[in-house]
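User: Hi! I have a protein structure encoded as tokens and I'd like to know what sequence might fold into it. I'm fairly new to this, so please keep things simple.
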């Protein structure tokens, strides 16, 4: 009887250790990495919000946003979408962005942004 109990305790201990090291540990590490990345991007998020909130410009050229934030194109687009911005095509066929709160999506069908209003 003691041998059976020892085997059961050993198996349960092994299963618990495998679960912790094989699932919970990696999951926790991934969550920590994700949180650090989000925290590291917060200054860039704020910079992009500030640029897009500037009252002097209705929309901003994507190239300006990308260069000022120091980001690669796709990473910059992802962050712009996170902060609730949307893409705009200018009359010169340039990519530009605006906050949805300042330029709602309902206006999208009627727009071709005048280059004079770009930042």
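Assistant: Happy to help. Inverse folding works backwards from shape to sequence: for each of the 119 positions I chose a residue that suits the local structure. Here it is:
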């Amino acid at each position: 009887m003691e041998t059976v109990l020892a085997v059961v305790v050993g198996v349960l201990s092994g299963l618990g250790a495998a679960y912790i090291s094989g699932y919970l540990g990696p999951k926790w590490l991934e969550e920590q990495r994700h949180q650090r990345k989000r925290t590291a991007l917060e200054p860039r998020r704020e910079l992009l919000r500030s640029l897009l909130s500037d009252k002097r410009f209705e929309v901003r050229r994507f190239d300006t946003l990308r260069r000022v934030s120091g980001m690669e194109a796709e990473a910059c687009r992802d962050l712009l979408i996170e902060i609730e911005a949307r893409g705009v095509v200018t009359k010169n066929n340039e990519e530009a962005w605006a906050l949805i709160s300042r330029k709602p999506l309902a206006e999208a069908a009627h727009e071709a942004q005048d280059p004079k209003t770009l930042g």
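A useful reference point when you look it over: The beta strands are 60-61, 85-89, 95-99. Feel free to ask if any position seems puzzling.
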